Amino acid sequence: MLVNAKIAEAESHMKKTVELVKKEFASLRAGRATPALLDKVLVSYYGTPTPINQLATISVPEPRLLVIQPWDKTILPEIERAILKSDLGITPTSDGTVIRLAIPQLTQERRAELVKVVKKKAEEGRVAIRNIRRELNDKVKQQQKNGEISEDELRRTQDEIQKLTDKYIKEIDQLVSTKEQEIMQV
Question: pLDDT of 35-49, one tens digit each?
Answer without folding.
Answer: 877 877 888 888 888
